[in-house]
Amino acid sequence: MALRERTATDAVVQARERYVAAGVATPPLVVARAEGARLEDVDGRTYIDFAGGLGCQNAGHGLPTAVAAIHEQVDRYLHQCFMVGMYEPYVEVCRRLAELSPCRGDDQKSILLNSGAEAVENAVKIARVATGRPGVVVFDRSFHGRTLLAMTMTSKVVPYKRGFGPFAPEVYRAPAPYPYRGVSTDDAMHGLEALFKSEVDPEAVACVVLEPVQGEGGFIPMPRDFPPRLRELCDRHGILYVDDEVQSGVGRTGPLWAMEHYGVEPDLLVSGKSLGGGLPLAGVTGRSEVVDSVGPGGLGGTFGGNPVACAAAVAVLDEVVTDSFQRRARELGERIQQALESLAERIGAVGEVRGLGPMQALELVEDRATKVPAGELASATAAAARERGLVLLSCGLYGNVIRILVPLVIGDEDLQRGLELLEESLVEASSASA
Ligand SMILES: Cc1ncc(COP(=O)(O)O)c(C=O)c1O
Q1: DSSP string spanning 255-310?
Q2: pTM
Q3: What's residue 1's pLDDT?
């Protein structure tokens, strides 16, 4: 058998195995360049990107206005630490977040952080001080990050929690609606009421934290009536509603925030991922009465709201709120949904097509009647897709959901080709597993 030549990818993969912690899961893809919704690897192979750096490139790899703002900022200064010397880009991001916030109140303020997990933790800190209560209510299948409190709030044991305890106290989990698997809004509301009877006094709960579309948990959009009913329950008990839009925000579902689909005003918004246009940036936004309950020095961090990331974020937010961006996002959402529904007619392993706007997914099952999750099929599909030149991600408690996080600047031809590659990969993986 002829020996395959060692590629540039092989060299990096080998070095990665030697020097990088095994705990970071990596596919054998080594990126050399990226633009829009396309990647090129170190061996010159090109890929259509349906992953967008895990939802961080909603406005496309290398959004020109963000790249220009980054270059300009790099030439001025890189880092000050906002607690040492203030700078305008930080204030500008907070100004835009205030103007664009879905939250209750007309005097919004923000703190900027480095990651979604850090922002989630800061939202909880703020909620606890604002209410004087310790409890945090989260939901089945939620993902809020990997730091201690955020990991405690996250709901998947392997790989996120096993061996990492003890976990943070005062975190309580309630059912979340999941219509495909028989959990309705009523069931979830009853679950919350039961939690308040059996586990925690609602008067001791600072906040509930909910993703409007559960991301890592399986791309499960909350039914239309769940956020309003949760809002009403929060108001009844003086609980703050924290809207975790780290994955669903910054245009991912069409409008700037997924919560706009529901017409509900949360108390605190957590943003991240695409906010920095590819640089690490996250935020917590809410009315001043809540956010300013924490005194000076209680919030912060060395790098949070780095000036270069903030310069990029101003450009990203300016882009994502334009009519043209949002129109295109809606159009992409419709096309992706139609394509996935038509694929589901041909492939029996698709249990459900679901999503909100262009945040769409396929839940794969071994059998439509039993709905047994087909996790291996999803990972085999992603591997087959990579071989064909499509970057695809799975998600879900059982890893059996194929999710689409395509940069929302993709052209029609690439979208069409990407969807064809997805189908071919699913067919190949299904026949291999049959
Ligand atoms: C909804 C949600 N919240 C929080 C996080 C954590 O963000 P980060 O990985 O930036 O810490 C994520 C990451 O996927 C997320 O999807």
Answers
A1: SSSGGGGTT---SEEEE-GGGGBTB--EEEEEEHHHHTTSPTTSS--SSTT-HHHH
A2: 0.97
A3: 53
pLDDT for 365 beyond 60:
yes
Q: Residue 3 above 80 pLDDT? A: no
pLDDT given for residue 273 in this prediction = 98
Q: Residue 378's domain is classified under what CATH number?
A: 3.90.1150.10
pLDDT score, position 5: 84
Pocket test for ligand 1, best of 122, 147, 151, 247 (most atoms within 8 A of CB): 247
Q: Identify whether residues 37 and 122 lie together within a single domain.
A: no
Both 41 and 179 in one domain: the answer is no
Q: Show the domain range for 153.
A: 77-320
Going from the Cα of 409 to the center of ligand 1, the distance in angstroms, rounded, reads 22
pLDDT single digits (tens) 314-363: 999 999 999 999 999 999 999 999 999 999 999 999 999 999 999 999 99
Q: Is 211 in the pocket of ligand 1 (CB under 6 A)?
A: yes
Kindly report the protein residue whose alpha carbon is nearest to atom 7 of ligand 1: 116
Site to probe by mutation for ligand 1, drawn from 246, 268, 403 as the one with most ligand atoms within 8 Å of Cβ, is 246
